[in-house]
Structure formats: C-alpha cells, structure tokens
Design a protein that fits this description.
It is a single chain. The chain starts with a helix and ends in a 7-residue tail after the last helix. Helix content is 45%, strand content 11%. α15 links the parallel β10 and β11. It has a seven-stranded mixed beta sheet, sandwiched between helices. It is of the alpha/beta class. α6 crosses α7, α12 crosses α13 and α15 crosses α17. The radius of gyration is 25 Å and the shape is globular. It is built from 20 helices and twelve strands.
C-alpha cells in the first residue's frame, strides 16, 4: 500500500481525485465525525444570534492541531462569531504528533477537514496551514524556540528528561515544528489579527504557533482545562501550563478568606483526602479513603523517627516541562536527594511515586531511585504508583516535605508541614515554602530542618497564607466556561451554542469569552 501511495503521491492532485471519488473519512485516527454531525445545526444557531455586536469587535485567529482540538476550536470560534467577532480557524490536520504520516494520507485528512468545515462558509473563515509556504529561514530567536519546543515534545511523548537528539522522534518533531513555524509566520505577518487563541501553548505545533505569535508581538491567549466541568484556565501572553498566578495573588493575596470561602476550600480538601469527587469534578484524587496517619505508619513499618515525604511528578508531564531552577532535571534532584538522605538515618524518607505513572509508558521514578541506591537502606521507603496508599495519610505523619512542582507541596504546607520546593511551581515564593535557588541552599535548608528538635512546623500565619493561596488557585484561577476538552460533546449537549449565546449563557460565560479575546483579566 505504501508503494502505491508513493506512486500516487508523485501524480499532481491524486489525493484530491481519490477523495472526490471516495468522499469518506480516511481510515486513520483523525476523526471529525461528531463535528460533522453537529456543525450544520451549530452554524444555524449562530446565524440566529447575529446582530448583537460587541462594542469593539475583534479580528481573531484560533489555531488547533489534532482532531479533538480542531473540533473544540471550531465550536469556540462559532461562539466568538456569534458574539460579533471576525474569526479564522487555522489548523493542521494531524491525527498524531509522534508518528510520521504519508503525504498522500495527510492531504486526504486535509481535504476531509475542508469538507467537514464547509458549513462555516460565509460565517467563519478556515485555513489549513498546509496551504501556506513552509520554506525559508526562521529568525534566530524562533529557530531556538523551535529546538526547545521539539525537545519538550520528545520529553512529553517519551516521559523522559534525557533523550537522543538524533532520534527519529526528535527529528520528526523538529521538522514538523519548523514547517509549522514557517507557515504560521507567513500567515500571522500578513493577517495581523487583534487576538490569537491557542490551546495549551507549550507542546506540539500548539507551542510553536504560540512562539510565532509572541515573536510578532500579537496579543495571545492560551487555555487549558482542569478536572472540573465548566471551567477553563487562561493565560494572556503567557503559556497557561506555567500556571502563573502572580496577577491573581497580587489582586487577592492580602484579602482574608471569608467564612464561606473557608468552608469551600475545606470541603474540597476533605473530598481530595477522602477519595471523593468534588463539585463538578470528573476524577478521584486518591485510590483509597484516608485510614489515618498512625495506621499507615504501622502498615508501612515506619518508626518514631521524623518522616521526610518526597512527592514526585510524572516525568515529561506538560506541567513539569521547563520547570528546572537549579537542577538539570527532576530525576537528578531525586537522585541527589535520596543519596544524601541515605547517609542520614536519623530521619526516614518516604518517596511517594505519582500514581499517574500507571497511565504512562515512560520510565518510572522507581528506576531512578534504584539506580541511585542499588542497595536501599532500611530508612528509605518507596511507595510505587500502583500501591493503594492515601497520600494525605502520609502528609499527616510527615515532619518535612520535598516537592518539585506537585500540588502536594502546597497541601502539606496547609497542614503546617515545612516544604522545600525545588522546581518552578506556581506556589513557590508565596510565603509558606522554602525556596532554594542552588543545590548549596537546598542542602543547607534540608540540614537545618532535619536538625530541628522537635521538628519545625510552619507558623499559624504561614498556614493561613497556604490556605488562602489554595483557595485562590482552586477557585479564583479557573474561569467559567461551557466546554472542557474531555467529554466535549457531552458538555455541548448541556450547553449548545444557542444556549451559550443566550442571555443566560452570556451572563454565565461572557467575561471568559472577553478574556479569551484579549480583554485584560480582572480577578
């Protein structure tokens, strides 16, 4: 079949002719079936809402790649068009970011996308970046950004921090990212939109499009989703995956929590501790309910010596990429930490491997520890990703916490546990963590906290700050929004475009749509 595609690929418009003769969805992962079914009625709903123009309509570009992001971008674009803006959906019709695709198949996926998007004609513009020239040279800053983006893509895909730059995957990502950057540069230089919208903004061509938009100085909003339905994370002129809460904390960090807010964050923490869902959440944060810290101490064979709890992240997760401060990698930090504490039996180290590793295909942090300590001392304990241990029970008996970027660090501080933060996480520097900038500072802090007898605890003021910050992060950082990426079409059934564009929908989500188009965020 590949030989036939190679032959057909050399014949001009062969894919076009093939698609004209067989206008069906290509048998690949790239699937817009649900969008194809919904789109005609969605377009009609928007046409019925036209006429309610905003005070300052904007020229907006949404970019997406991979079919699920494309589907969502189209519906978001229609909502923005219904709110009176001029909208262009720019896309790349890839079904996978980590696998090569034959040009014949890519062309078919592009033609398929155009056919599905045909109902948008006259209402929302659409453009395949494959139509644009991807030749020439990039400015040096962008070339450097493409290399970094390709490295992130490789780490994200393999769930590793070290990789071979001669590998097929890295070369694939470098080639595709460079092509995307050249096409995006050509398009954005000529179109000069008032606002650019991009999901994620860190990995794959999504990250590349963001880098090009910012290189050109275009107002750019990136967005992602948490575990709660009808919520969205937003960042203006920043990568949302960095979770920069500086503006939020500046606006609300000095405001004391109200009683209602205290009850709300307490209810969330209780749900997370007790392995229950919260609010409109879609996930459980623990496999098992809390059994109590002392019971867990006995079950794990821990004695009365102080316990240091090190909570890992998942390697290569997009919330950890590019977060190094004084470390070469998270794995290096873990290696140095376990080797250091192996020589200090006056304390017990418990390493909680992130349960999310169960869903990943990359190397486990367990192997990192085994490499660092071929013969593990009796006071070093490792809880693997598959073990049914409640992390909050570990927090209850911990005397000291060590974290890279995981939210567990913040939650330990909420329980008055001193926490040393090694990575660039959103809660670092907020007044309730220890924040070293070098390994020398890190080990000095570790020594000081380990030597304290009785073990040091955070002050009441620090604990109060931690609870305040946690409330702001969990409840003020997200904004109301009708459609998450996961279970998108289920959300759309609840919030079809007609409802989103009604007075009810505009009241619920109007500010968020304004923020998406670049209106400065107000917390």
């Amino acid at each position: 079949m590949t030989i036939l595609k190679d032959i057909l690929g050399k014949i001009p418009y062969s894919a076009d002719l093939y698609t004209a003769l067989r206008p069906v969805r290509p048998r690949t992962r790239y699937n817009l079936t649900q969008l194809e079914t919904i789109l005609p009625s969605a377009v009609e709903q928007v046409r019925n809402q036209l006429g309610k123009q905003p005070a300052t309509p904007k020229k907006i570009v949404l970019f997406a790649t991979l079919h699920y992001w494309v589907e969502q971008a189209v519906i978001i674009g229609l909502a923005l068009r219904g709110l009176g803006h001029e909208v262009t959906i720019a896309y790349l019709p890839y079904g996978d970011w980590d696998k090569p695709i034959h040009p014949f198949d890519l062309r078919r996926q592009d033609l398929y996308t155009r056919r599905v998007l045909r109902p948008l004609h006259g209402l929302v513009h659409s453009l395949s970046l494959l139509e644009l020239p991807a030749v020439g040279h990039l400015p040096l800053p962008l070339e450097a950004a493409i290399e970094t983006a390709s490295a992130f893509d490789t780490m994200y895909t393999l769930q590793v921090e070290d990789f071979d730059r001669n590998s097929a995957l890295y070369r694939l990502r470098l080639t595709r990212n460079r092509q995307a950057a050249l096409a995006a540069l050509h398009f954005l230089q000529n179109s000069r939109p008032d606002a650019v919208l991009i999901p994620n903004g860190l990995v794959t061509e999504l990250g590349v499009f963001y880098q090009v938009a910012r290189h050109l100085g275009l107002p750019t909003t990136t967005y992602e989703f948490n575990d709660q339905r009808e919520q969205i994370w937003l960042a203006q002129n920043e990568i949302v995956m960095r979770q920069n809460t500086d503006a939020l904390w500046a606006a609300k960090g000095t405001l004391p929590l109200t009683q209602a807010e205290r009850e709300k964050i307490a209810a969330l923490e209780d749900a997370r501790t007790s392995a229950k869902k919260y609010g409109k959440g879609t996930r459980f944060w623990q496999d098992v309910p809390s059994q109590g810290g002392e019971k867990l101490r006995a079950d794990l064979g821990l004695d009365a010596r102080p316990i240091v709890l090190l909570a890992t992240n998942v390697l290569g997760d997009s919330l950890t990429l590019g977060r190094n401060i004084f470390t070469a990698s998270m794995a290096e930090w873990i290696e140095k930490t376990v080797q250091y504490l192996a020589q200090r039996p006056q304390a017990q180290l418990v390493v909680r491997i992130h349960p999310g590793e169960r869903l990943m295909k990359g190397p486990s942090m367990v192997s990192v520890i085994e490499r660092a300590l071929p013969e593990r001392p009796e006071h070093i304990h490792v809880i693997g990703p598959h073990e049914k241990v409640n992390t909050y029970d570990l927090m209850e008996i911990a005397a000291l916490g060590l974290a890279y970027t995981t939210t567990v660090g913040m939650e330990m501080a909420m329980r008055s546990v001193p926490v040393i933060v090694a990575g660039q996480t959103h809660y670092r520097g907020r007044g309730f963590t220890y924040d070293p900038s070098t390994y020398t500072e890190y080990f000095e802090m570790l020594n000081t906290l380990l030597a304290a007898s009785p073990p040091m605890r955070l002050t009441e003021t620090q604990v109060e700050i931690a609870w305040n910050y946690a409330y702001r992060f969990f409840f003020d950082f997200p904004f109301d929004f009708p459609w998450r990426l996961m279970h998108f079409w289920k959300d759309y059934q609840t919030w079809p475009l007609a409802r989103v564009l009604s007075e009810e929908g505009r009241t619920a989500f109007g500010k968020t749509f304004d923020y998406l188009t670049g209106t400065p965020i107000e917390y």
